[in-house]
Design brief:
Number of strands: 3
Order of helices and strands: EEHHHEHHH
Strand order of the largest sheet: 1-2-3
Distance between the termini: 22 Å
Helix content: 55-70%
Oligomer: single chain
Number of helices: 6
Shape: globular
Largest sheet: 3 strands, antiparallel
């Protein structure tokens, strides 16, 4: 995986065939959970669609009634758009795509949603930010975290200077 910033703030994404296949599977899983099985994943549902008001159940219910279906539709449309992009490559070669700012933000939101889904599945917590160190899920979670970081940096290059000054956990397995 490589991301670089091009002219006119465009972001070039280069993914290996295995990375494309992995993203396709993960996005399909996310689509299935959001479209068909959200009730079976309450922790994921709460994190993907947080309450509008934790203090006032009436406000939360009114907001959910008014906005929930549109939020679900927006996420599903974004998944479908990215899946179509991933399907545009030759199966044997890497995928090179150019994203404008809006498309890069869609990718960033979806990568975050994938991390939420996977993080809930592998038991990521405040005390254990990457889950079991050598499990396949944790390896994929770290890769998604790296992709998210590269997207953030490509969208806001000065962010890296700020982040360098913070004491953040390492992406390396412990």
């Amino acid at each position: 995986m490589q991301l670089s910033r091009g002219r006119n703030a465009a972001i070039r994404v280069l993914l290996e065939p295995d990375e494309v296949d992995l993203l396709r599977v993960l996005l399909s899983d996310l689509r299935e959970v959001i479209a068909e099985d959200l009730d079976a994943h309450p922790e994921v549902a709460e994190r993907l669609f947080p309450s509008a008001s934790r203090d006032d159940p009436k406000v939360a219910a009114a907001f959910r009634k008014m906005a929930y279906s549109q939020l679900v539709t927006t996420k599903l449309e974004a998944i479908d758009k990215v899946l179509r992009t991933l399907d545009s490559r030759n199966k044997e070669s890497e995928l090179s795509i150019t994203l404008d700012q809006e498309e890069a933000n869609v990718w960033l939101r979806l990568v975050n949603d994938l991390r939420i889904l996977l993080g809930c599945e592998i038991g990521v917590s405040d005390d254990d930010v990457f889950g079991p160190p050598d499990s396949p899920g944790s390896i994929v979670y770290r890769w998604l975290t790296a992709l998210q970081g590269q997207l953030l940096y490509a969208l806001a290059p000065k962010l890296l200077d700020y982040l360098d000054g913070l004491d953040l956990p390492s992406l390396a397995a412990e």
